[in-house]
From TrEMBL:
Entry keywords, A to Z: Cell membrane, Membrane, Transmembrane, Transmembrane helix, Transport
Keyword Transmembrane: yes
Segments crossing the lipid bilayer: 7-26, 32-56, 77-99, 125-148, 160-181, 201-222
GO CC annotations on file: plasma membrane
Example of a GO MF term: water channel activity
Membrane topology, record value: Multi-pass membrane protein
Name of this chain's protein: Aquaporin
Species whose genome carries this gene: Paracoccus zhejiangensis
Family membership: Belongs to the MIP/aquaporin (TC 1.A.8) family.
Recorded superkingdom: Bacteria
């Protein structure tokens, strides 16, 4: 396994362990705001820890954006996506093992931080609301990532800008979908939670990938890219 694949695996594991873990293990104590910051901080940690190796994309939608913009090869895209999904599954598995050690925990009753929509899930938002949120939020997220990692962006601040953006996205959307903007993050918990999490998983694959693709295409066309920028990873 390449160093890039290992970095993406561990980085995505960190994202799920911090983010999903905060929701499952501490959600009642820290609330939506605390969960939002846990997801954001996980990106900051992974970006500065692994960005120099793989770019710390940690997200198939982000990787698709980099591919569409011409800043990632098809070979790396496939490798990254596989590593990201496996990292998310591993992270969800560890959280499940930890949560199962609590006497009153049940995955059927308490869940595993899975994404969802509709009646019985958080605010009960419709499928259309969920799709629009995930598409728009992912588009904005990937646009920020591509911009913050341009060669002429302020040096050393990319990971912080991206982490804060993810925090803001969660502050807006946890009550809508639990916030995916990342197919790997959705796949990991859904595999263990089953039921509605699996049946609704298609939305958390399609909407983020579509948003990431559009962001990458606009960046590649120079619409959201500095005219003097050269491709560069997290710094």
């Amino acid at each position: 396994m390449s160093s890039k694949a290992i970095a993406e695996f561990i980085g995505t594991f960190i994202l799920v362990f911090f983010g999903v873990g905060s929701a499952v293990l501490m959600g009642d104590l820290i609330g939506f705001q605390g969960i939002a910051f846990a997801f954001g901080l996980s990106i900051v940690a992974a970006a500065y820890g692994f960005g120099v190796i793989s770019g710390a994309q940690l997200n198939p939608a982000v990787s698709l954006g980099f591919l569409a913009s011409g800043r990632l090869t098809m070979g790396d895209f496939v490798t990254y996506c596989i590593a990201q999904i496996l990292g998310a599954i591993a992270g969800a598995a560890v959280i499940y093992v930890i949560a199962s050690g609590k006497a009153d925990y049940s995955i059927a009753a308490n869940g595993l931080g899975q994404n969802g929509f509709g009646e019985g899930y958080n605010g009960g938002y419709t499928m259309m609301s969920a799709f629009v949120f995930e598409f728009v939020a992912t588009f904005l997220f990937v646009t920020v990532i591509l911009g913050a990692t341009q060669s002429d962006a302020p040096v050393g601040f990319g990971g912080l800008a991206i982490g804060l953006t993810l925090t803001g996205i969660h502050l807006v959307g946890i009550d809508v979908t639990g916030v995916s903007v990342n197919p790997a993050r959705s796949i990991g918990p859904a595999i263990f939670a089953g039921g509605a999490a699996l049946s609704q998983l298609w939305l958390f694959l399609l909407a983020p990938l579509a948003g990431g693709l559009l962001a990458g295409m606009l960046h590649g066309a120079g619409i959201t890219r500095s005219p003097h920028a050269q491709p560069k990873g997290f710094r």
